[in-house]
Amino acid sequence: MANSDGVNLGFKLVGPGEQPDIEYHPNPAKYHTRTQLRLNADPNLPNKPLPSGFPARVEGPIVWEGKDWTDEKQWVYELSLAELKEIEDAVEYFKGLNIPLGHISPKTFPLPTFSQTLHSLSKELYSGRGFFVLRTLPVDNLSKLSTAISFAGISSHVGPLRGRQSGNGAVIAHIKDLRATHNLKEIGNAAYTTDAQVFHTDAGDLIALLALEVAAEGGTSRIASSWRVYNEIAETRPDLIGTLAEEWVLDSFGGNPPYSKRPLLFHEDGKIILQYSRRHFTGYLSQKRNPEIPAITEAQAEALDAIHYTAEKYSLALNFQKGDMQFINSLGLVHARDGFRDDEEHTRHLIRLWLRNEELAWKTPAALQHIWDKLYTLKPEEQNFPLEPEIRKKAGGVAK
Ligand SMILES: [Fe+2]
């Protein structure tokens, strides 16, 4: 078979039980060929009804396209000198309490006036467009400890619950190319390389990212509205909505049990929720998809590409600068980042928190509840704040 460029793909659909020809990095020729072959085999696919309970379309401020945003002032909140002073004072106040970092909260990190703004911005995450950026934390003037306290402290006013990022109770994760300093065999996630990360969600409600340093070139952050993606797929290929709402086999990459099963897409309490990471179905680098576990289907392979390319079409590129803090709703948005190049002076390094604001939170689908129970139940004294990069160990079966 040749694609439209005349390239011989040697591509064919596989039978049930066989893993389709699909990799972590989406291939547009394979996507289009797979779609064509599936529609040839069953031209009736686009006429299938949506699964029960799923709407023809969803509306709301979180339904947007990249082109709707014309000026980053629409989502970038510049910290004033007075706000930076409140943050600095809160760091000193917290240090003065002499208690473990797991106790960082709106109470122990008081922001007298800025707190109200952060609460409004948290509402923007849960019931508005789903993202915002705070600019600029002066990271060059702060120690690693003060940086961590500032970031966790500010974030606690957005979402007081911090999620478990790793089996050892770490609530801070480092996103950095670790190939030169860490064991390559442990790297199964593009987050620890300079490689592009394809569209995906993280586990949990909210993601907060702080840029400690940006790359010499590339590394652009991209986000897209899962609700906008839903509307397009629901309209053009409702059968794929059915596929996304069915149970999938997620590789736990050496965990016990070796895989878990759950849907990727939910319609809960009037809200579309997408929770998935492509690598669980394709593998990545040292974490290959386990051939012993049930394969995904051709329909699932097509659905993965449909999400990726629809998200890409409607995505917004964020100009993520050093000292920026990016907050996104990981239930209603997908995100990706371009590949990048570091040099001696510019080594891309982000730190990340997973957050939840119980007061504003969306209803968690029952099939995700066990993941939320593992994510958001760390007691303050169980929380670790690694100040140096480490590769996350599986958080007790939490599939990111
Ligand atoms: Fe991510």
UniProtKB/TrEMBL annotation:
Keyword annotations from UniProtKB, A to Z: Oxidoreductase
TM spans (from-to): none
UniProt GO MF annotations: oxidoreductase activity
InterPro entries: AlphaKG_dependent_hydroxylases (IPR050411), TauD-like_sf (IPR042098), TauD/TfdA-like (IPR003819)
Pfam short name (any one): TauD
TauD/TfdA-like domain sequence ranges: 101-354
Protein name from the UniProt record: TauD/TfdA-like domain-containing protein
Species: Arthrobotrys musiformis
